[in-house]
Specification:
The chain has helices spanning about 25-40, 90-100, 100-105, 120-125, 140-150, 175-185, 190-195, 220-230, 240-250, 250-265, 265-285, 290-295, 300-315, 315-325, and strands at about 10-15, 45-50, 55-60, 65, 70, 80, 115, 135, 155, 160-165, 165-170. It is an alpha/beta fold. The chain contains 14 helices and eleven strands. It is globular. It has two domains: about 10-195, Class I glutamine amidotransferase (GATase) domain (Rossmann fold); about 210-325, Homeodomain-like (Arc Repressor Mutant, subunit A), CATH 1.10.10.
């Protein structure tokens, strides 16, 4: 289940990990936001700790960074944040991974939770800590990542993935997505909205990453787009594999291969996700009761809809509305 990380002890020490040729911009943004959250709370809830292995670190632009960072092997943190690495080709990527191997090996011995985003997941992958774990990654990286670290379950469709103590996000700014979910859970949705309204955090699309595979801007194949548009106008209880095969004039075997190849999802799950996205949009943009939404979109079972929605997004419909809702609110004053 895609479940956001839970709060930790107070104050929570957060290790911001730097290593040779990393891209640390996101770490600085996280550190600034943690300071802001401490200020809002009026006490130290979060204690960022810059950690590295060895001396000063030459980052992506070859500058020396954080000469006074704490040696990674000497500190215990409840949460570790691993940033992306900088590489322009496969050979350079392998070189960066080789240089960062001492960091990976040290992270393999650390306890706590882990956040990573973009290519930072490769640093954790070579530590062996995420074998068998589902990790979000980019489409351009997924095949290479799977070849280098086949024991990891790489997911190029999910914008954010939570698997046990590990949270990962696609994109160079993926840390915002993990951080936003975490702030909503640890400090409340109202605090998250305050940070967004004050432009301390970007205002995201009010939608779970679980719906990315059925986003019209992502679906490029014309046959899939035709199917997607048709499904949006068809009651949920009428959508099944026979309906889809008839629409595209394909055999069930050909249709299964086609959808699996284009989306890395099973056809049934992809079709269900289309209608569930519509449910999510109505939850986020209206105050209609779930029963009315269910009836409007053609679901026969309210309990079945709730179960499917939670399995797909990691949230109950009520939790989803609270986290992703676009209804107006009056933000409290930050300072």
């Amino acid at each position: 289940m895609n479940t956001a990380p839970s709060p930790g002890p107070i104050p929570l020490s957060i290790g911001l990990v730097v290593f040779p040729r990393c891209q640390p911009a996101g770490l600085f943004a996280i550190a600034d936001l943690l300071a802001l959250l401490n200020h809002k709370a009026g006490r130290e809830l979060f204690r960022p700790v810059w950690v590295t292995h060895g001396g000063p670190v030459a980052v992506s632009w070859q500058n020396q960074l954080l000469r006074d960072a704490v040696p990674l092997e000497t500190v215990d943190c409840g949460l570790w944040v691993v940033p992306p690495l900088w590489a322009t080709d496969v050979d350079q990527l392998k070189s960066v991974l080789s240089d960062a191997l001492p960091v990976s090996e040290e992270l393999a011995t650390r306890q706590g939770r882990f956040w990573t985003y973009c290519s930072g997941s490769l640093i954790l992958a070579q530590s062996g800590r995420i074998d068998g774990r589902r990790m979000a990654t980019e489409r351009w990286l997924v095949l290479l990542a799977a070849r280098l670290f086949p024991a990891v379950v790489w997911d190029a469709e999910a914008g954010v993935a939570h698997d046990g103590d590990f949270s990962s996000a696609a994109g160079l700014h993926g840390y915002f997505r993990i951080l936003s979910e975490w702030i909503a859970q640890t400090m409340g949705v109202e605090v998250l909205r305050t940070l967004e309204s004050g432009q301390f955090l970007p205002i995201p699309s009010r939608e779970s990453g679980a719906f990315r595979p059925v986003d019209e801007t992502v679906v490029c194949d014309p046959r899939l787009r035709r199917l997607l548009e048709a499904a949006k106008g068809t009651p949920a209880d009428r959508i099944d594999l026979a309906w889809a095969c008839g629409l595209l004039d394909m055999s069930s075997r050909s249709f299964f291969r086609f959808v699996a190849d284009k989306t890395t999802m099973t056809p049934g799950e992809w079709l269900r996700r289309i209608k569930l996205r519509q449910v999510g949009r109505l939850l986020a943009t209206t105050d209609s009761p779930l029963r009315e939404i269910s009836k409007e979109l053609g679901y026969q079972s309210l309990a079945g809809l709730t179960r499917s929605f939670q399995q797909a997004t990691g949230y109950t419909p009520q939790q989803y509305r609270k986290l992703f809702g676009e209804l107006e609110f009056s933000p409290p004053v930050l300072c």
